[in-house]
Amino acid sequence: MKVDARLTGVSETALLTLQVRAQEARRPDAIIDDPMAVHLVDAIEFDFAKFGHTRRQDMALRALAFDAATRRYLVDRPSATVVALAEGLQTSFYRLDAAGVGDQFRWLTVDLPPVTALREQLLPASDRVTVCAQSALDYAWMDRVDADDGVFITAEGLLMYLQPTEAMGLITECARRFPGGRMMFDLPPSWFARLARLGGLWTSRRYRIPPMPFGLSAAEAAELVDVVPGVRVVHDLPYPRGRGRVLHSVLSTVQRLPALDPVRPSLTLLEFD
C-alpha cells in the first residue's frame, strides 16, 4: 500500500525535486545513483503529473554538488555532524552512506512535522540520524548539534523561500553558533527571485512554484565575508558535469565568465571562523 503524501506550500516542492531526481536515477545513463529516491516515488501516492515535465538534470546536479562538498568535509572529519535544514525528501544521507566516507558521521534532519512524518514512514531508520520536527528558523535545533567533531550545514533549496531578514538571520546565527563549521546553500540570482515573486513560475497548468523572496548572485554572496560576522571564507562552487556536451559547455562558460555572475544561480559554501 502506498503512503498518501499531503504536503502543501513550500513543503510540496520536496515532491517536485524528488520526482526530478528519481526520473534521472531511472535512466540507463543516469548522472546520479539514487535508488532511495526511486523507492520513495514508487511508495508515495501522489499526482506527480501535476508538476509537468520532470525529465531534466538540474535537481540531480544540485544534489551531486551538495554530496561532493559534504563528502570532502567528512573525509577530513569523519565523525562530524551534518545538519540538513528543510531536508524535504532529499536522500543525501543514504547516498553518502553508500559512498565510502565511513560510518561515523551523524545526521540531523530539520524540517516541518508533515515532512518528517512522511520521511519516518518511508525511509529506513538509522541510529546515526536524528530528526527535529520544526522550522529551520526555530533555532532550538542548534542545541541538538554536537559540534565537537565538526559540523556541516546544508540548506538545499531552502533560503530562496525565506524572507531576506530570515535568511540572513539564519546564516548569521549559524556562523555565531558553529565556529569552525561550514554551511552550504543554493540561491537563484535576484532577478529570477523577483520574477518568481511578481509573475510566478509555472511548471505546468496545474502547478506554480511558490514565491521566492530571497536571491543572491555569486558576486553578492561573496560579500557575505564582509557582512556576516564569523564568515571567514566564501566559496563559489561549480555545478558538476552533466550529461551532454552542450549542457557542459554552457555551464562551464556561465561559471567561468564574471560578467555572467548576476544572471546565474549560485552554489555557495561558507567557512566559519
> Which structural class do you get from the secondary structure elements?
alpha/beta
Q: What is the CATH architecture annotation? A: 3-Layer(aba) Sandwich
Instruction: Assess the beta-strand content as a share of residues.
Output: 15-25%
Query: Averaged pLDDT, please?
Result: 93
Helix content: 25-40%
Major beta-sheet overview: 7 strands, mixed
- Overall radius of gyration: 18 Å
Low-confidence segments, ≥5 residues, pLDDT <50? none
Number of domains: 1
Question: What is this structure's SSE topology?
Answer:
Blueprint: E1 3-4, H1 13-26, H2 35-43, E2 44-45, H3 58-76, E3 81-85, H4 92-97, E4 106-111, H5 113-122, E5 129-133, E6 151-155, H6 164-177, E7 182-187, H7 190-198, E8 201-204, E9 207-209, H8 218-222, H9 224-227, E10 231-236, H10 245-256, E11 266-272
Helix pairs in contact: 1-2, 1-3
Keywords: Methyltransferase, Transferase
GO molecular function: methyltransferase activity
Pfam families: LCM
Protein described:
It is a single chain. This protein is of the alpha/beta class and 273 residues long. It has a single domain (58-198, 209-272), classed as Rossmann fold, CATH 3.40.50. It is 37% helix and 19% strand. The protein has ten helices and eleven strands. The protein has a seven-stranded mixed sheet. The chain has a two-stranded parallel sheet with strand order 1-2. Strands 8-9 form a two-stranded antiparallel sheet. The longest helix has 19 residues, at 58-76. It starts with a strand and ends with a strand. The model has no long low-confidence stretch (mean pLDDT 93).
